[in-house]
Amino acid sequence: MSTSSSENPALSKDSNMPARTPVRIAEVSEGLAGQRLDNFLLRELNNVPRGVVYKLCRKGQVRVNGGRAKPDRRLEAGDKVRIPPVEARDEKAVARVPDSVIEQLETAIVFEDDDLILLNKPAGIAVHKGSSVPFGVVEAMRQSRKLGRELDLAHRLDRDTSGCLLLGKHAGAVRGLQAVWKEREVEKRYSALLCGHWPAGEKTLISHMKKNQLRGGERVSSSGEGGKRAVSHVRLVKKGLACCKVEVRIETGRTHQIRVHTQEAGHPVLGDDKYGDRGLNKAYERAGHKRLFLHAQQLVLAWKGERHWQVPAPADWEKTLNTKI
After folding, report:
1. Which of 94, 130, 143, 208 lies 20 to 30 angstroms, CA to CA, from 263?
2. What is the number of alpha carbons within 13 Å of residue 291 lying toward its C-beta?
3. Counting runs of H as helices and runs of E as strands, what totals does the chain give?
4. How sure is the predictor about 17, in pLDDT bands with cuts at 50, 70 and 90?
5. Domain total for the chain?
């Protein structure tokens, strides 16, 4: 639990305006030590979209011990977090996840124990809600299991990427699993279909990658000065007619890393609407093959013993490989 005190009652004086929560200071308890700042704020600001939390941090409205802090900062017991005013939300207005989506995700569970859930996440479902997304995997699983924010993501996948997605079922598991990712003590392998023909063997792609924000808040990534080091190892698995299948092992997890690296190498991921080959994507769509052909196929990590999960890419990718364009 955290303790908090109010700085001022920042509530709307106009009854026609949405009520706003007061500015307050929340002290981090022993039980929440080690948690990321963004996840702490999501607990404190119930039902506020994750995108709002990132925006508050980016603008410097969130302070830790009086100073600005990034969303991925790990908190310590006794830290004092300034929580700015946000629009209060009506619990009844929170989007309910449709039963059909919950059923789809329940059938996608690959492994579950008392600590975690591993899903073969379907393409097209976001991992969490956002400003334009009413719900995601984590909200669906909380509703399905009747759990609160103690159930959370260990890591993230792009909305249109399918495959291995790991969630912790309680705060201790979430902190432990997120620490594995932070220390890069996890092996991540992906399957992808790339436009054209990747050369035989394995090629290592290294760049410094940074995020750029476009109008409307849309984010894209690119390689350039000032970015963070990104390393991908790409190996040809099978040649197709106008595309090929590769396996990608990533040492780092930058935003859109595989999509940017392969695009910069001249072979973008098939079906990628941000970085891809629009002409080839349209040709495959007309032939009935529409999706981002990127799949998280394997996770290997050490947490309470050796964990090794593998989820093969969808079987219908073989038809895509053999489609004449």
Report:
1. 130
2. 20
3. 8, 16
4. very low
5. 3
Segments forming the whole domain that contains residue 290: 185-321
272 is catalytic: no
Q: What is the CA radius of gyration of the chain?
A: 21
Q: Which residues of 312-323 are buried (b: 16+ CB within 10 A; e: fewer)?
A: ebbeebeebbeb
Same domain as 226, residue 289: yes
- What CATH number is given to the structural domain containing 143? 3.30.2350.10
DSSP state letters, 10-38: ---SSTTSPPBPPEEEEEPPGGGTT-BHH
Q: Are 304 and 169 in contact (CB under 8 A)?
A: no
Q: Which amino acid is located at 119 in the chain?
A: L
Encode pLDDT of 161-202 as tens digits. 999 999 999 989 999 998 898 888 999 999 999 999 999 989
116-121 and 80-83 beta bridge pairing: unpaired
Full-model pTM: 0.76
In angstroms, the CA 152 to CA 163 distance is: 17
Same domain, 126 and 254: no
Domain end point (choices 31, 58, 87): 87
Whether residues 189 and 317 share a domain: the answer is: yes
Identify whether residues 288 and 220 lie together within a single domain: yes
